[in-house]
Amino acid sequence: MLTGCMIVKNGGEELALALRSLAPFVDETVVYDTGSTDGSQDVAVSLGARLVQGTWNDHFAEARNLAARQATHDLLLVADADERVEGDPAGVREKLAQSPGAAAALCRVMTLQNGQIIGGMNQFRVYDRRRVEYFGRVHNELISLDGSRLPVLSFADADLRILHAGYSGGRTEAKNPRNLRMLEMAWSEGDRREQVKFHLARSLLIDGQKERALPLFKECIKEKGYFGEMSAVLLVERIAARALEAAAFTDALAKEELLEELGTALFDVERIQTMFPENPELLRHLVTIYAALGIAEAATRAALLLRDAPRTWGGLAAVEFVG
């Protein structure tokens, strides 16, 4: 038996879509509301969810763990109000039944932007609350309750995948003050996980604090991994945006100065791209930069690589344990 768990605050129109997509996979759904004022509570109840009026202390792991305690069943499937669950409900149940020793299960969480999938990463979204719980004020992850390493399983996309739209349509900027406040709190509490470092850097950049953000991004890139790749994309994207500015300049002197700046940055861009050679976003930005600098042959080479690159990025890691 499986319980769906969702923490919600002002889920809006997407909440109904999320609950309907989750329902076929679970035997019950618990909605832990942290203070909605838009009628999300009524939406949850109308769609058969069990509503729990909860509390919010600027701590996602705390809220998720409190929601988990309200579940009837020990196996939980976690989704958010801005997500849609896809796959084969029967296949999920069959795989869980075949792996009774697994403490958690990984699935692909795909990032949507303006209706298009632009990337994805592996996340634990099914877990046994008797063996693991959430950790981390923001961008939390599962840890074992007794500190031991516990076996996990992975779902194929055909069985279970989640589409996440929480940062499309300008929502990144709207959520940033809250996120930055919580990330600063986590950092001051000593949370130095790679995802905290990346998201802190991104929030600082959105807030205009470039000097604080750049060293954190560079640390992430050195560590490679998913968040290193994300950092690389964000930094190169900024340079590509400057390249587009240069193409629109009519002032010859200002354009020349900007092209000089791009030429200086090109070495770093090329070095970063070799660290993540199949990333389509990096290749697309590289084409833009080469074109702005008038390096036609290099732009063509990059365009050919882009043509053959994967359409999305952020693959499933080979994870065998949680702990």
Describe the structure.
The chain has 323 residues and is of the alpha/beta class. Among the domains are: 2-168, Spore Coat Polysaccharide Biosynthesis Protein SpsA, Chain A, CATH 3.90.550.10; 170-223, no CATH class. 48% of the residues lie in helices and 21% in strands. Strands 1, 2, 3, 4, 5, 6, 7, 10, 11 and 12 form a 10-stranded mixed beta sheet that branches. Helix 6 (194-206) packs parallel to helix 8. The longest helix has 24 residues, at 225-248. Mean pLDDT is 88; it is low at 315-323.
Fold blueprint:
Blueprint: E1 2-8, H1 14-22, E2 28-33, H2 40-46, E3 50-53, H3 60-69, E4 75-78, E5 83-87, H4 89-98, E6 104-113, E7 116-128, E8 132-135, E9 141-144, E10 150-154, E11 160-164, H5 171-188, H6 194-206, H7 210-223, H8 225-248, H9 252-275, H10 280-293, H11 296-308, E12 321-322
* CATH classification class of the domain at 2-168: Alpha Beta
Q: Decide which structural class fits the backbone.
A: alpha/beta
Kindly identify the CATH topology of the domain at 2-168: Spore Coat Polysaccharide Biosynthesis Protein SpsA, Chain A
pLDDT < 50 runs, ≥5 residues: 315-323
Could you describe the largest sheet, including whether it forms a barrel? 10 strands, mixed
How large a portion of the residues is in β-strands, by DSSP E? 15-25%
Distance between the termini: 24 Å
Radius of gyration: 22 Å
The ordered string of helix (H) and strand (E) elements is: EHEHEHEEHEEEEEEHHHHHHHE
**Structure annotation, total helices:** 11
CATH arch. level architecture of the domain at 2-168: Alpha-Beta Complex
Number of strands: 12
Estimate the helix proportion, in percent: 40-55%
| CATH superfamily label of the domain at 2-168 | Spore Coat Polysaccharide Biosynthesis Protein SpsA, Chain A
- Principal-axis shape equals elongated
Average pLDDT, rounded to a whole number, is 88
